[in-house]
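Explain this fold:

***
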Amino acid sequence: RRSRRQGMFRCPPKFSGLMNRRPSSNVQLCRIKIMIFRRFLIFLALLSISMVSLAQLNRYETIPEASVFLLGESWVQRELKVSPAQLKMIQKHFGDYANVAMDLQTKYRKDRAHKEKYNVPLKAAQKKLIAACLKLLSVPQRARLMECGIQKYGIFSLISPDVARAIALTPEQSKMAKKYYLTSYNTMDTLSKETAARVRAIPQPKDPNDKKQMEAYKAKVNQVAKAGRDSDVPKMQAVQAAMEKKTLALLTNAQLTAFEKLKGKPANMK
C-alpha cells in the first residue's frame, strides 16, 4: 500500500537528487511541508470521502471522465480487471500530473493575485491525465468505469450531462439536481477549507532537523485534523443525505428505473 501511494504521488524530480546527501535546513523544511501536506490530503479524503468525487462531477462532461480519478482505488482496479501493465502506466500518468500540480501549487502560493494563470495549465494537465488514462482502457473497461462512477457518486451523477440524457431528465429537473449538488458540495468544501486553515495556522518547527520539534508538530497536526474530522463528518453526512433525498424525489418511476440500470452490477467497494 505504501509503495503504491508513493507511485501515484511521488516526490517531484527536483527533490530526488537530494535524497543521497544531508539536505540544508530550507530543503528539509520544504520536504517536511510536502510530507505533512500530503498526509493532510489523505486525511481530507477520509474526512469527506465523496468530496473529490463531487468536485469531478462539476468539472467534466461525462461520468467516465470524472471517474478517471477513481482509478487509484483498488476496488475500481478490480472491477475493471486492470492489468499490471495498465496499472503501471496509470501510476505514471498520475505521478506526472501530481508533479505538475505540485509545481503550480508552489508557484501560486507566491502569486495568489493571478489564480487563473495557474488554473489554466492545471486544467490542461487534468485533461491530459484523463485522456491518457481513458486511452489505456478497453471499451468494456470504460463502460464498467462509468458504472463504477455512478455507483460511487450516487444520485448526484444526475448532474452529469451523459446521465441526464440517458434517463431523459428535463431542464427543470437538471436545474434542481445541480442546486442540491452544489449545496452538498459547498458545505463539504467550506468545512474542509476551515479545517485546512486551522492546520496551516499551526506554528512550524524552527529547526526541521530537531526530531523533538518535528514530533510535536506532527502530533499537533494530527490532533487538529482529528478534531476537524470528528466535528465535520457528521455535518457533511447530514447535509449530503438531505440533498440526496431531495434529488431522488425529482425522478419519475421510469427515470429511477433507467438510472438503476445505468449502475450495472453492484461493485464491491471494499
Q: What stands out?
A: The radius of gyration is 20 Å. The longest helix spans residues 211-248.
